[in-house]
Write a structure and sequence with these properties.
Layout: E1 2-3, H1 13-41, H2 44-49, H3 55-62, E2 70-71, E3 94-101, E4 104-111, H4 124-137, E5 142-148, H5 158-176, E6 181-190, H6 194-198, E7 202-206, E8 211-213, H7 217-224, H8 230-234, H9 236-243, E9 248-250, H10 253-266, H11 306-309, E10 317-321, E11 329-336, E12 339-346, H12 352-368, E13 372-378, H13 385-389, H14 392-405, E14 410-419, H15 420-425, E15 435-438, E16 443-445, H16 449-466, H17 472-490, H18 492-495, H19 510-526
Parallel strand pairs: 4-5, 5-6, 6-7, 6-8, 7-9, 12-13, 13-14, 14-15, 14-16
Antiparallel strand pairs: 1-10, 2-3, 3-4, 10-11, 11-12
């Protein structure tokens, strides 16, 4: 492979401006994440009085010490609980991600019960559905740390009730796919949420704290007139000795986590996945810190994406495919910590030649079973008479067909703009990439705000002329409103909040994240779980 030569000037004014802008965005992301942690931690005194651990303490104890944890959708729901972003608490009331428990790679779904007693937050259901999808696609055991007050009846929405059924359906699907489902019920698991516990293969309950019932004391009294305590209705002792719902009785949170870890250690989960010898590779020749200054804050400014590749690829080596054809679309082969990876990115709009080249490359990667990485940095497919005559729709459609039907894992990272049908051709969220992440500067939209505004101004002005008068003030106001509307929706603080990615990552962490997800995908390909007609049934 050829080594990419660096053309970056870290001392330049443009580089420093890009770097400052990126660092400000990264700090903004981390600020929102810290707010979620701090809000949950305010419940510490209440948890300690009950002899409980905070949700993130439970998670920390569950994970193998010193192992990485890939958190999913930390900004979920940002601005949806409170439109004031300085007061919003993101995360959807759920802490989720992929980590290691007793040497087994698992998906973890932990109720953030330090916030509103674990009641459902905006985007909490879609976030959990996404984690379940990732568990199924990547053949990961599914661990739940449950303590939730369920739905807030004061803000009840029928669609949340109906779509929430998918959570329970998916638990059954995960189990039936041969993927163990382990639940530690730290506190309440009530009403429909009781099935989050009941549908699990292994259930750990905590003495004096676990609660699982279809109707709590208030609802029971309202419905039937019967009076019973929470412990009588659904306590841990009752469920582990009488109903048979619980399998293990823990004395406290620490003991429950200990049992969960022992269960995972007792499952010979890695029997079908041979231990690979350590892979030998050379790190990139250039400092990952330089990724901070490559991408301009203005998506209209050109970028050489090969400079990004040079800072994530082993030894900065890149075997470019079709270098002299469709040059605005850059494709080729790299390795990440020794793992082969096809890469598709853009130095501008996608033209017919670029679409044709990308289509060919996607098919070649599928033939060789090589995963594909899409680094999104495009304002879309080229438009204009010449490009229409050259078949941009036809060739763009072929690219979209190739992306849709690819048989290898596809990973998407939004690095810059991802506009129009370019988002589709570059395996945007709607095309179900195996993993999808964003850099903090990324922008996603049907088109740029200025482009949209000018389009509508032209249409509106033409209508005014037909009526015999043009109101320039109204046109200026229309242009401003459209630009503001588009700009407010295209940033990661809107898109990630709505789960249009799996999370926002620091550009400097790109290589580490890619190494994790490639290993996850590779392991999934090797693993053959014991599928069942039904999920594991309770006695």
């Amino acid at each position: 492979m050829a080594t990419i030569e660096s053309t970056i000037s870290p001392g330049s004014e443009a580089f420093q401006a890009n770097r400052d802008g990126m660092l400000a965005l990264i700090e903004r992301v981390h600020g929102y994440e810290r707010r979620s942690v701090a809000t949950s931690a305010r419940s510490r005194e209440r948890f300690e009085k009950r002899g409980q651990l905070l949700p993130r303490e439970r998670l920390s104890l569950l994970l193998d010490p010193g192992t990485p944890f890939l958190e999913i959708s930390s900004l979920a729901g940002l601005g949806l609980d409170n439109p004031d972003l300085e007061k919003s608490v993101p995360g959807g009331g759920v802490i989720g991600g992929i980590g290691w428990v007793s040497g087994v790679r698992v998906m973890i779904n932990a109720s953030d019960s330090g916030i509103d007693a674990g009641a459902l937050q905006p985007m909490g259901i879609p976030k959990q559905l996404r984690m379940q999808e990732l568990a199924l696609e990547n053949k990961l055991p599914y661990i739940q740390l449950v303590e939730s007050a369920g739905a807030n009846l004061m803000t009840y929405k029928v669609e949340e009730f109906v779509t929430g059924g998918n959570l329970f359906r998916n638990i059954a699907r995960i189990s039936a796919a041969g993927l163990p489902v382990l639940t530690v019920t730290h506190g309440s698991s009530t009403a429909g949420g009781a099935y989050q516990t009941g549908l699990s293969d292994y259930i750990v309950m905590v003495r004096g704290r676990s609660r699982a019932f279809l109707a709590g004391p208030p609802l029971l009294k309202a419905a039937t007139g019967e009076i019973a305590t929470e412990e009588e209705l659904g306590g841990a002792v009752m469920h582990t000795s009488i109903s048979g719902l619980g399998d293990y009785l823990a004395e406290d949170d620490r003991d429950a986590i200990r049992i969960a870890r022992e269960i995972m250690a007792s499952i010979d989960w890695n029997r079908d996945v041979p231990a690979e010898p350590p892979r030998r590779f050379k790190p990139p020749r250039y400092d990952a810190e330089e990724l901070l200054g490559i991408m301009p804050m203005d998506h209209k400014r050109p970028v050489d994406m090969k400079q990004v590749i040079a800072r994530i690829a082993d030894d900065s080596e890149f075997l470019e495919f079709g270098e002299n054809y469709g040059g605005a679309t850059v494709v080729g082969h790299i390795k990440i910590e020794g793992l082969p990876l096809g890469i598709i990115t853009n130095n501008g709009p996608i033209d017919p030649a670029g679409a044709t080249k990308a289509t060919h490359f996607i098919q070649a990667c599928c033939q060789s079973k090589t995963p594909i990485l899409y680094l999104n940095n495009t304002t879309g497919f080229m438009v204009g008479r010449d490009y229409e005559e050259a078949g941009i729709i036809k060739h763009g459609s072929k690219m979209i067909q190739a992306v849709t039907n690819a048989t290898v894992p596809q990973i998407t990272i939004y690095c810059g703009a991802s506009f129009g049908a370019g988002n589709y051709g570059m395996c945007g969220r709607g095309f179900h990439p195996r993993f999808c992440f964003s850099w903090p500067n990324a922008k996603t939209a049907v088109m740029g705000g200025e482009q949209a505004a000018k389009t509508m101004v032209i249409v509106t002005e033409a209508a005014m002329k037909r009526k015999g008068e043009v109101d320039q003030a109204k046109l200026d106001d229309l242009e401003r409103r459209i630009i503001d509307r588009f700009d407010s929706q295209m940033s990661v603080f809107t898109t990630s909040a709505r789960l249009l990615d799996d999370g926002v990552i620091d550009p400097r962490d790109t290589r580490a994240v890619l190494s994790k997800v490639l290993s996850i995908c590779r392991e999934a390909e090797l693993r053959e779980p014991q599928k069942m007609q039904f999920s594991v049934a309770r006695p």
